[in-house]
Amino acid sequence: MAGPVQSIERAAAILRLLAGGPRRLGLGEVAASLGLAKGTAHGILRTLQHVDFVEQDAATGKYQLGAALLHLGTSYLDVNELRSRSLNWADALAARSGESVRLGTPLEGRVLIVHHVFRPDDTFQTLDVGSLLPLHASSLGKVLLAFGTATVEPDREPGLEAYTRHTLVDPERLARALTEVREVGWAAEIQEMSMGEAGLAAPIRGHGGLVVGAIGLSGPVERICDGQGRPRPHLISLIREAARAISRDLGAARW
């Protein structure tokens, strides 16, 4: 029986390394972390980049997981499993936050809502399961965009739609916002899809740390944000705790 192929083992190690943290890594960091010569690491990275498993930031030269690999990561996970693993945590998040909670996955350039927990009060609410949200104007969508789980398709969306005057439609501003999402680990929408409404979301990860969905809460802007329009820290903590708990149930390592 043939033994393992060293180049494939090294490529797998690089992919695991890039999946293990939220930030991009430079060639020197990858080589040093895995004990590889820079030339060897560079050759493997270039090959992974050629098949879209790795992307290189044009400004910094650093590497991150590519969209093709992240899309493969979602294919193993049935939406029903994601939903079933999230039920208890979504209910608890709604109870603790006092806001409505939604679970989203990518579908044809949009966010598909696969689970929705009503806000725990007596106000009239409409079930959102099965609805599609824009990627660029929703906190759920921003998470999926930031971590490469979804992409805005130019042929489908030649121009980003402005739902309110706060919607991020400029590609450069949106790119900066998505970079910040990757750095802080959560996303916000503040009156970007509907005036008077705001939302927060965090990534749900599966095996290998790949982002497979997002969980978010939403409500009136005065409840989600403070007087300066900044998301309330305790709500950020709640949404991130729920996302981590679901991720652990799906087999993601702790982070």
Structure description:
- This protein is an alpha+beta fold and 255 residues long.
- Helices cover 42% and strands 19% of the residues.
- A six-stranded antiparallel β-sheet has the order 5-4-3-8-7-6, sandwiched between helices.
- It is globular, with a radius of gyration of 19 Å.
- The two termini are 37 Å apart.
Task: Please report the number of helical segments.
Answer: 9
Average of pLDDT: 87
* Biggest sheet record: 6 strands, antiparallel
Assign the structural class, choosing from mainly alpha, mainly beta, alpha/beta, alpha+beta, or little secondary structure: alpha+beta
Q: How helix-rich are the residues, as a percent range?
A: 40-55%
In sequence order, what are the helices and strands, one letter per element?
HHHEEHHEEEHHEEEHH
- N→C terminal distance: 37 Å
What oligomeric arrangement do these chains adopt?
single chain
As a whole number of angstroms, the C-alpha radius of gyration is 19 Å
Q: Order of strands in the sheet with the most strands?
A: 5-4-3-8-7-6
Secondary structure layout:
Layout: H1 6-19, H2 27-34, H3 38-50, E1 54-56, E2 63-65, H4 67-75, H5 79-97, E3 100-107, E4 110-117, E5 132-134, H6 139-146, H7 171-184, E6 187-190, E7 197-205, E8 211-220, H8 221-224, H9 233-249
Antiparallel strand pairs: 1-2, 3-4, 3-8, 4-5, 6-7, 7-8
Question: What brief labels describe this structure?
Answer:
255 residues, two-stranded antiparallel sheet, alpha+beta, globular, single chain
